[in-house]
Amino acid sequence: MKRIIVDYKKLTPEILGLLVEKYPDGYDYQDIISFKNAKGETVKAIEVRTEETIYLVKISTKLEEA
């Protein structure tokens, strides 16, 4: 299974639809995944799965508003 880290700005309508379907009332603290990227920076994301891919959508202010 592939894992893809994606920024909110680059979400496709399909991924955005899956995100809204999984978190219709928004996400909570326990839904957030924290990890370090290659630069050693801490990244926070929420997970959305399809049959063949796991998308980690980076959390940003714009994502919270959407």
Features:
66 residues; alpha+beta; 4-stranded mixed β-sheet; 4 strands; 36% strand
Question: How would you describe what is shown here?
Answer:
By secondary structure, this protein is of the alpha+beta class. The protein is built from 2 helices and 4 strands; from the N terminus they run E-H-E-E-E-H. The radius of gyration is 11 Å and the shape is globular. The model has no long low-confidence stretch (mean pLDDT 86).
Helices and strands, with pairings:
Elements (H helix, E strand, L loop, with lengths): L1 E5 L6 H10 L9 E5 L5 E8 L3 E6 L2 H5 L1
Parallel strand pairs: 1-4
Antiparallel strand pairs: 2-3, 3-4
Structural class: alpha+beta
SSE topology string: EHEEEH
User: How much strand?
Assistant: 35-45%
Instruction: Please tell me how large the radius of gyration is.
Output: 11 Å
**Arithmetic mean of pLDDT:** 86
Question: What overall geometry do the principal axes of the alpha carbons give?
Answer: globular
Q: Spans of 5+ residues with little confidence (pLDDT < 50)?
A: none
**Number of separate strands:** 4
Widest sheet, order of strands: 1-4-3-2
Our count of helices gives 2
The biggest beta sheet is recorded as:
4 strands, mixed
In percent, how helical is the residue content?
10-25%
Distance between the termini: 27 Å
